[in-house]
Amino acid sequence: MEKNKAIDRVTSLYQHLVPASIEQYLTLFSQGYDFFSLEIKEQSFRIALTDKLLGLLKDESKIPTGLNKNDIAFLLACLCPFKEGLSVLEKEAFETFSSLADIGYIDASYWLSLCYIKGLGTPVDQKKALDYLQSAAKQGYAIAEFSLGCFYEKGGIIKQDYQTAFKWFSLASQKGLMEAECELGECYSSGLGTEKDLKKSYEYYKKASDSGYAPAQFEMAYFCFFGLNEMRDVAKASDYLLLSANQGYAPAQFMLGKFYADGYGLVKNNDEAFKWFLLAAKQGYPLAMNAVGDCYFYGRGVSKDCKEAYSWHLKASQKGLPEAMTTLGDNFYYGGGVNKDYEKAFSFYLLASQQGYTLAQVNLAKCYFNGTGTKQDYLKALEYYQLAADKDNLVALYSLANMYLLGKGIKKDEVKGEKWLRRVAMLGYKEAIDELENIEGVPYKTYLNK
Q1: What's the confidence (pLDDT) of residue 444?
Q2: Architecture of the domain made up of 1-139
Q3: Confidence (pTM)
Q4: Which member of 137, 220, 231, 300 lies 3.0 to 4.6 Å from 144 by CB, making a disulfide possible if both were Cys?
Q5: 3-state secondary structure of 297
Q6: Angle between helices 270-281 and 250-262 (to 10 degrees)
Q7: Residue 17 forms beta bridges with which residues?
């Protein structure tokens, strides 16, 4: 490797392309296209490209015009089959990146930061990772600018700073990096590092979407569905979802499934809904995994299979999804596809409740109140009913009213009990309406205006 010699390569093109041949790949790279922008769809192409690069290193006279042996070595290192360990190949790739960074190869500095962050070919070192990332960003490498913005946005290795994150996203966006354009859309949408501006948010999402960026297409669907920048257009939202979903973007695949399941902008079709849910679920998307479980449980778009339903709900639960935990709790509580087991039901409700999931809090309170799956504890029941009632859950509000009326877990107070009943009756809860009519002896409409 040449030492202490300045590198003249300038990466300046970030439009995503799929080269049709190895020759085209090398030509595009020589023209300044970024490694990440040149998509490799097939493993066979990756293998053939690796063989070609190895051959060029052995016979440098065949290196195409516009490239040199440093470029070839860099590409070979990028193609290394990293598996987050310290294999011989990873160490060799790391050493290549290190040598190239020493002579000013900016792209290699970014890759060194990745190696230090993930421990690829070298032990993890967050300080060195940040140093190399900042070096590449300050030299104008758009991928590094975007990544540094993400670090400032999330915090952790570096102090969270939304304004600085916005600055780096803006710099990367000016170079045409669609990931940065999409992130600026989020900044303007949420007011992170800048004033909230839905018009600008739409413009950046639209720009990234027009470049074919799947996450931005998904955000455009959101804008169209809720009419955040123009008239609400559900059909247009479904079109954007389809564009994003066809690129394999799991959130879009899940939402497209929802559109088919509920008939939003599309003809209701349970078979299509299940297809898209399953595609997203296979990528490990928790909401989709839960939806696939629901489809199997109720036989929507697929033959009813409680065993498969349980399997998918459990997978979603293990991903931390409280909705799935609550569903599993219900299954064990009522014997839905599994044998009744109140203790297991209680444990799933507890897990979901710890994440603040309202339905689980109500069910957990019910378990404590009745002593189902756990020791009876009125104070605990009161605690969880109160948590759910604070979010206007009707069952929780009604249950609190009756705890006051009956004096269980709390000092009996009929005045407060009736006050809670009126509150939940005003929200249209039938049981509360019926109970108030029995207590007061007057029709529902009479006290509705009190």
Answers
A1: 55
A2: Alpha Horseshoe (1.25)
A3: 0.86
A4: 137
A5: helix
A6: 160
A7: 38
pLDDT for the residue 3: 40
Tokens of 411: 């000092």
236, HSE (Cβ side, Cα atoms, 13 Å)? 12
Task: Annotate 49-75 with DSSP letters as a single string.
Answer: HHHHHHHHHH-GGGSPTT--HHHHHHH
8 pLDDT band, cuts 50/70/90, is low
What secondary structure letter does DSSP report for 103? Answer: T
For the purposes of burial, counting CB atoms within 10 Å of the CB of 297, is it exposed (0-12), middle (13-18) or buried (19 or more)?
buried
In this prediction, residue 6 carries a pLDDT of: 43
Query: Using CA atoms, how far apart are residues 424 and 399, in angstroms rounded to an integer?
Result: 10
In Å, what is the CA distance from 181 to each residue of 78, 225, 312, 335?
Answer: 25, 21, 35, 49
**Residue ranges covered by each domain of the chain:** 1-139
pLDDT beyond 80 at 362: yes
pLDDT at 396: 94
Tokens of 425: 């009756």
CA distances from 272 to 128, 256, 300, 302 (A): 48, 9, 10, 10
Q: How far is CA 296 from CA 270, 276, 285, 317, 433, in A?
A: 11, 14, 17, 16, 37
Closest to 250 (Cα-Cα) out of 291, 279, 289, 211: 279
Q: What contacts 339, CB < 8 A, 6 or more positions away?
A: none
Q: Give φ, ψ of 140 to 5 degrees.
A: 90, 15
What pLDDT, in 10s, does the model give residues 251-264?
999 999 999 999 98
Residue 33 pairs in a beta bridge with: 13
One-letter amino acid for residue 162 of the chain: Y
CB 353 within 8 A of CB 391: no
Q: How confident is the model at residue 83 (pLDDT cuts 50, 70, 90)?
A: low
Cβ pair 328, 359 in contact under 8 A = no
CA distances from 224 to 167, 183, 264 (A): 28, 18, 12
